[in-house]
């Protein structure tokens, strides 16, 4: 496609976006960024030598002991290289340990230690306070419904990624691998 001089001029006014719910993605990003900043601040105030990403790794290992580094990277939305650094940092402080995968010699399984569990509990107390403040203006029923709606959205996207993408007009097309 050939570009003209008009194509390269900057657009200086907001452009209306036609898709429904176009602000949902921005709202979710803003919420996650603000939440992460509040957690990081709380961790610093408690003098915990952890980041939000470290806390997420510990939380995932508490729920699913024995995950690989690649699985942890996908669950915490970081690169494999970043996860490698996070895990080695947690390992050097005794919060996680690794063991060889029983079936794959090239993969390690990661487990939280008791020291890591204690740190995760301290982080959890801070996070609970932040969540309470975040949800203070919602009724208990609304907070529960919000969680349900967000889980439904995540499930819809996960099933799209696993089994194909359903178009808005009702037809379906398979996702490319």
Description:
This protein has 177 residues and is mainly α. 58% of the residues lie in helices and 8% in strands. It has six helices and four strands. It has a two-stranded antiparallel sheet. It has a two-stranded antiparallel sheet with strand order 3-4. The relative contact order is 0.08.
The tally of helices reads 6
CATH architecture of the domain at 47-155: Orthogonal Bundle
| Span between termini | 27 Å
Could you spell the SSE succession in H and E letters?
HHHHEEHHEE
The 3D shape can be described as globular
**Could you state the CATH homologous superfamily of the domain at 47-155?**
Winged helix-like DNA-binding domain superfamily/Winged helix DNA-binding domain
**Radius of gyration, taken over Cα atoms and rounded to an integer in Å:** 21 Å
Unreliable spans are 165-177
- How is the main sheet built? 2 strands, antiparallel
Helix-strand makeup class: mainly alpha
Quote the beta fraction. 5-15%
Q: Tally of extended strands?
A: 4
Under CATH, the topology of the domain at 47-155 can be stated as Arc Repressor Mutant, subunit A
């Amino acid at each position: 496609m050939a570009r003209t001089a008009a194509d390269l001029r900057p657009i200086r006014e907001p452009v209306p976006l036609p898709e429904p719910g176009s602000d949902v993605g921005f709202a979710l990003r803003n919420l996650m960024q603000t939440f992460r900043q509040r957690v990081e601040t709380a961790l610093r105030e408690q003098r915990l030598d952890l980041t939000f990403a470290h806390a997420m790794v510990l939380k995932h290992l508490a729920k699913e002991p024995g995950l690989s580094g690649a699985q942890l990277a996908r669950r915490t939305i970081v690169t494999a290289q970043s996860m490698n650094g996070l895990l080695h940092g947690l390992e050097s402080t005794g919060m996680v340990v690794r063991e060889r995968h029983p079936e794959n010699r090239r993969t390690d399984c990661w487990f939280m230690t008791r020291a890591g569990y204690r740190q995760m509990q301290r982080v959890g107390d801070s996070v609970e306070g932040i969540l309470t403040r975040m949800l203070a203006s919602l009724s208990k029923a609304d907070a529960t419904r919000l969680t349900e709606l967000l889980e439904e959205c995540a499930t819809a996207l996960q099933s799209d990624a696993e089994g194909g993408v359903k178009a808005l007009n009702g037809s379906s097309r398979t996702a490319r691998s």
